[in-house]
Amino acid sequence: MALQERIRSGPASKRSMPRGERRRGAILQALHDCIIEKGYPKTTLADVARAAGMSPSHLLYYFAGMDAILTQYFGDVARRITGRLDGFRTETPEQRINLIAELFFSGEGVTRSEIGFMLECFGVAVHDRKLHAEKAALDRYCKAYLRRLFEQSPHGVRGARDSAEVAYALLVGLRTAEYFDKRLGADDARRLFHAEMLNLAGLRSAE
Question: Hey, what domains does the chain have and what are their CATH numbers?
């Protein structure tokens, strides 16, 4: 499978989903759109219901409230990310690094709007226990994934845990910086991440 196909691969079409699942999907998309437009603190249940084409009371048939919708959406995005990363496990360490860089910085895998949504979620997760648990689980997965990558690379087992911490901080930091700083740009962020990952893995000196 070509690299771009590996990056883009996602869930199957929604056409075959039951009606209830389609409506839940519409609500989740409506929340995403509202948050991107005005931010979570200013988004109301009525806003989400209106964007989803239903009444607030109808929306509450599918979700208990705003927090439940947010947690579900974050969990869905996190599972999509981990699923794609799992699909790279059979590749060589160098190819995995290429694929990870493309996934997070090319706009083909994790989109800019999804990054913006996730950043909103990170702020809410500070005080929301369920969302905090979802984010902590994603962090643990990514760090364990990166640790395994470094163990299988010329880097070796020794220090792989520390390198995984550095790599994850680099990923989150560059992805966040690129979102807010137009001078950086996605291409530069991807180049920096890719070069430093290769360096950490012992595959090539950083550029």
Answer: 18-63 (1.10.10.60), 70-207 (1.10.357.10)
The answer to whether residues 187 and 181 touch, using CB atoms and an 8 Å cutoff, is no
Look at residue 107 and tell me whether its pLDDT is greater than 80: no
Supply φ then ψ for residue 109, to 5 degrees.
Answer: -100, -75
Task: Report the predicted TM-score, pTM, of the whole model to 2 decimal places.
Answer: 0.81
Length of the chain: 207
The secondary element (H helix, E strand) that includes residue 66 is: helix 66-86
User: DSSP state, 181?
Assistant: -
Do 116 and 60 touch, CB atoms closer than 8 A?
no
How many Å apart are CA 24 and CA 44, to the nearest integer? Answer: 17
Name, in order, each residue with C-beta under 8 angstroms of 182's C-beta and a sequence gap of 6 or more: none
C-alpha neighbours within 13 Å on the C-beta side of residue 92:
5
At 150-169, the pLDDT tens digits run 999 998 888 899 999 999 99
Which one-letter amino acid corresponds to residue 114?
A: E
